[in-house]
Amino acid sequence: MSQADNPPKTVTACVLIIGNEILSGRTQDANLAFLAKGLNEAGIRLREARVVPDDADIIVSTVNEVRRSFDYVFTTGGIGPTHDDITSASIAEAFAVPLIVHPEAKRLLEGHYPPGGLNEARLRMAQVPDGAVLLPNPISRAPGFRIDNVFVLPGVPQIMQAIFSELKHRLQGGAAVLSRSISCTLSEGAIAKDLGELQARYADLEIGSYPYFRRSDFGVTLVIRGTDRERIGAAVEELKTLVRALGGDPQEGQAED
Amino acid sequence: MSQADNPPKTVTACVLIIGNEILSGRTQDANLAFLAKGLNEAGIRLREARVVPDDADIIVSTVNEVRRSFDYVFTTGGIGPTHDDITSASIAEAFAVPLIVHPEAKRLLEGHYPPGGLNEARLRMAQVPDGAVLLPNPISRAPGFRIDNVFVLPGVPQIMQAIFSELKHRLQGGAAVLSRSISCTLSEGAIAKDLGELQARYADLEIGSYPYFRRSDFGVTLVIRGTDRERIGAAVEELKTLVRALGGDPQEGQAED
After folding, report:
1. Do B164 and B240 reside in the same domain of the chain?
2. Which domain holds residue A157?
3. pLDDT at B141
4. What is the pLDDT of residue B217?
5. Does the beta-carbon distance from A26 to B119 stay under 8 Å?
């Protein structure tokens, strides 16, 4: 079988958001959508996300479940210097390896703080599970780390994004997911039947229907996703035709996913 | 044992966000933080959230796992009229009951659309698992429903919020979680050691540390959560004292969770 005959491999990921502040509603998560888009660009399908509290037993069991079910796992949160930052220790426990002070991480932190500033609490940010590889932090604070297929990132969005942007290009993705979106002012209920039939004819693509409600009008945005640009193009043409047949005016938007 | 001797019961919840559009990064979820705050007000602890794709097998297995692990489950998304709206059918499968057209839901929809407007696709929004109870939608579109401890809500935030606000007062919560927050311009690393010792002395409370970075300054917000107002007050006073001892100026914020 030639390489061209191989079906594109699907590479999957799970995001694990660690933090009581998300579950209490204090903090609106901003990391999931960023990681979702970045993974998509790398040809990796985000298939699940979980938000869990700062509870070691729950983190350990969840990490052990998802690292076996997905190609990649990305965690956010819980790698700072305070008592509620228990992610690194929990990941070490999940992998049944000791938590060590990483010499290079310690050196990075020593360079970041004024002399004498690297106290015991801050030194916790140099602790990683034995065998972990550091993930460079281009804005020069504590690094993230990777162990096996688990990437451990901070929760502060600016820092998480900087680290992820550095590592993204080294991820092994499968076929990239392409998408096109068509909006119209028809209601979902008016187009649903034809849309279901279109989806049935294009079983290799994924057609999503997302209603919108604005002050001035309402309507629906239809997103067609897949890996084959020509098939997506064909489905888009059929979709535009059926929108027009129902009296709508199809507007193509930016590919949004 | 008198009622006053009973420890406050902890009532738990899991939120299940259903939709490819969240996992693709197309849509920024806005429902989790809203539900988290609302549940908190009702004395219910949100202990986990999951985002899963529009995949019946995954929805069924996830619902069956979480409805047995938590007192309440709230799902959002996937109850509209289009082919990708598979939540109601998946919940019926999870409970091993037939999917039926609910007479009252059908009547509500008939009243909402112009004569003849309730087509086959829209009628899907009247389908619920046999035995489900409708959740009134005060902005007069398709209702949500409840079956056992699972509450099924739409994904569109305005509609989800309206339905949840109606049902919230009928939830059976435990002891309400109270919180107070103190901010200061100290760094997390400077306060971490003392903060860990404070947490150790107040093991019945939960102290969270959340760094912030603004254009003009940086610092940390410390949130103390618990069910006993006096204990929280005592911990806050100790916290203010230790912030001042480190050269900081403690500012009490609004209770944010």
Report:
1. no
2. 3-170
3. 73
4. 84
5. no
If you write DSSP's letter for every residue of B4-59 in order, what string do you get? GGSPPPPEEEEEEEE-HHHHTTSS---HHHHHHHHHHHTTEEEEEEEEE-S-HHHH
If you average pLDDT over residues A171-177, what whole number do you get? 90
Q: Do A25 and B48 touch (CB under 8 A)?
A: no
Q: Which residues of B touch A254 (CB under 8 A)?
A: none
Q: How many domains does chain A have?
A: 2
Picking from B52, B196, B225, the nearest residue to A48 by CB comes out as B52
- Which amino acid is present at A177? V
**Window B:226-255, CB contacts with A under 8 Å:** none
pTM over 0.90? The answer is yes
CATH number reported for the structural domain that contains residue B70 in this entry: 3.40.980.10
Is A54 close to B208, i.e. CB distance below 8 A?
Answer: yes
Q: How far is B111 from chain A (nearest CA, A)?
A: 15
pLDDT in the model for residue B166: 92
Could you tell me if B41 and B106 lie in one domain?
yes
ipTM of the modeled complex:
0.92
- For A181, residues 6+ apart whose C-beta sits below 8 A from its C-beta are A221, A222, A223, A224, A252, A253, A254, A255, A256
Number of H helices, E strands in chain B: 9, 12
Among B186, B221, B228, which residue's Cα sits nearest to residue B207? B221
B204 pLDDT more than 70: yes
pLDDT at A2 (0 to 100): 45
CATH of the domain at B196: 3.30.70.600
Q: Does B23 touch chain A (CB under 8 A)?
A: yes
Interface A:B, Cβ pairs < 8 A: 198
One domain for residues A22 and A148: yes
